[in-house]
Amino acid sequence: MTDIFWWVIFPYISITILIVGLIYRYAFNQLSWTAPSTEFLGKKSLRAGTLLFHWGIIFAFIGHLMGILVPIEVYVALGVSDSAYKFGAIYGGGFVGLMVMAGLIILLIRKATVDPVRVKTSFADYFTVLALLFVAGTGVYMTIIYNLTVVHYEYRLTIGPWFRSLFTLQPNYELMSAVPFIFKLHVISAFALFASIPFTHLVHMFSIPVKYPARPPQQYRSRSNYREEQL
């Protein structure tokens, strides 16, 4: 029953909360959909942390797609050897994970030490950064430390097929029974993070600025100039 809960019920609950929460927030609270900009409150630290985090998370997302959604048979058919894949997964994935962690740490320090930012930071903001840091940290530990010091675990034979089975509505939860604990913790924490997205600023990741190029230019005027025009 424990395996059924964590590898069947819990993922579907998380996905349901994510989808329903996004629909509800978009329908009833669109003004909070985008993340507020705090660039003018500390530009240097924001630029460094944001670039590291966003570029890191993009490459991490691509890496997860390649490792989880693409079956191992595809790599065999393409002639990608196990050693080549392991090298890219460990060193490339580890570097990307460290980028994400470094960006999150910079952003967390900024939220805690820059007074104007700290005043505007809510509990949900701290939770988001800490949750992302936990997920990224377990991912880095798996990728670098576990794979290099314990044994290289071939998740493409267990976690990958299990994850894909969720989409066919025939979850093969037995595949997760022998998965190492750190990998299970990473998966569970990731699904918990997915469920929290509609309630945090992470929701802005679903904002696609398709109308931005056609949007009319916006003019920003100082208050003194505006008063002069009114007079």
Describe the structure.
- The chain is an all-alpha fold and 231 residues long.
- Helix content is 69%, strand content 0%.
- It has helices at residues 2-28, 43-69, 72-78, 82-113, 115-120, 123-150, 159-167, 181-196, 223-230.
- Helix 1 (2-28) packs parallel to helix 8, helix 2 (43-69) packs antiparallel against helix 4 (82-113) and helix 4 (82-113) runs antiparallel to helix 6 (123-150).
- The longest helix has 32 residues, at 82-113.
- 16% of the residues are buried.
In short:
By secondary structure, the protein is mainly α.
Number of helices: 9
Structural class: mainly alpha
Query: What best-fitting shape do the alpha-carbon axes yield?
Result: globular
User: How far from one another are the termini?
Assistant: 74 Å
Tell me the Rg in angstroms.
21 Å
Please, what is the average pLDDT? 85
Write the layout of secondary structure elements.
Layout (H helix, E strand, L loop, with lengths): L1 H27 L14 H27 L2 H7 L3 H32 L1 H6 L2 H28 L8 H9 L13 H16 L26 H8 L1
Helix pairs in contact: 1-8, 2-4, 4-6, 6-8
